[in-house]
Specification:
This protein is an all-alpha fold. The protein has a single domain, classed as MetI-like (MetI-like fold). Helices cover about 85% and strands about 0% of the residues. The longest helix has about 50 residues. It starts with a helix and ends in an 8-residue tail after the last helix. This is ABC transporter permease.
């Protein structure tokens, strides 16, 4: 009997260790699979540079690009540019989130408001962000206002649409229950609407963050004197292809990091819903 109880006590621990081991193995496997393509690209790049299949002025060897990248990190060019770009992204993204969620919630809660405003909002956002840059330049100049406007434009639509769709997906009987319990409007928003729309908001946040980062790089390339996009444009003007390749790598890694953080936040705060990606 004692032996049976001991084994019964040990089973949960073993099961937990097994799950941890399986999770670790799956993580390592996924990481290994994800590295295959970059490694193949790096090998092909090195072969091309070694045999000069492409002019070294056009495609510098990996060692040269790595050396330039380390120099740009050591002298502060990359850290300073990333700090400036991240500040711009976070500021514009935050404004876009506030505007988008507010507008989406208003359209979702009021069919009359959606009928008046919805078509105009959709038509406004169907025009690509790049097409708005000349207009924003004329109105706002080429200062920080231009960058913020472009990022807000790029990021607020995913918030608005996902908030709208999340609210409209709530069954009407839930609102009937809220009315039967005599919830105030604030209580209905806090206890019914917000939990229902939260998974959609986080899904929209990931898309909005990606849009904001890409829009920022473009506008910094066109009208900026600092930032990671400016570094890329400067390298192109000076025909410093190693600098261009370094900035491409930094932009890709920074965008991947932002998406990973957003995905982690989505899983953390919407785990209960079963909608986390």
């Amino acid at each position: 009997m004692s032996l049976v109880l001991t084994e019964a006590r040990e089973i949960p621990g073993k099961g937990r260790l097994t799950r941890i081991a399986a999770s670790t193995f799956n993580g390592l496997r996924d990481t290994g699979l994800a590295l295959i393509l970059p490694i193949l690209i790096l090998v092909a790049w090195q072969i091309s540079a070694h045999f000069q299949l492409v002019s070294l002025q056009i495609l510098p060897p990996p060692a040269q690009v790595l050396d330039i990248g380390l120099q740009m990190i050591a002298n502060g060019e990359i850290p300073d540019a990333l700090f400036t770009s991240m500040w711009r992204v976070m500021a514009g993204f935050s404004i876009g989130a506030i505007v988008g969620i507010s507008l989406g919630a208003a359209m979702g809660l009021s069919r009359t408001f959606e009928a008046y405003v919805g078509p105009t909002v959709r038509a406004f956002c169907l025009v690509p962000t790049l097409a708005w840059i000349p207009f924003f330049m004329l109105v706002l100049g080429i200062g920080e206002g231009l960058k913020l406007a472009v990022i807000v434009k790029a990021s607020f639509l995913p918030f608005a649409l996902n908030s709208f769709e999340g609210i409209r997906a709530v069954p009407e009987r839930y609102f009937d229950v809220a009315r039967s319990f005599e919830f105030t409007r604030i209580e209905t928003l806090r206890r019914l609407v917000l939990p229902a729309v939260l998974p959609n908001i986080f899904a929209g946040a990931r898309l909005a963050l990606g849009n904001a980062w890409k829009a920022l790089v473009v506008v910094e390339m066109l009208a900026a004197a600092e930032g990671i996009g400016y570094l890329m444009a400067f390298g192109r003007l000076m025909f410093q292809l190693d600098t261009v390749l370094v900035t491409i790598a930094v932009i890709g890694l920074a965008g991947w990091t932002l998406d990973t953080i957003a995905r982690g936040a989505e899983r953390r705060f919407t785990r209960w819903s079963g909608h986390a990606a």
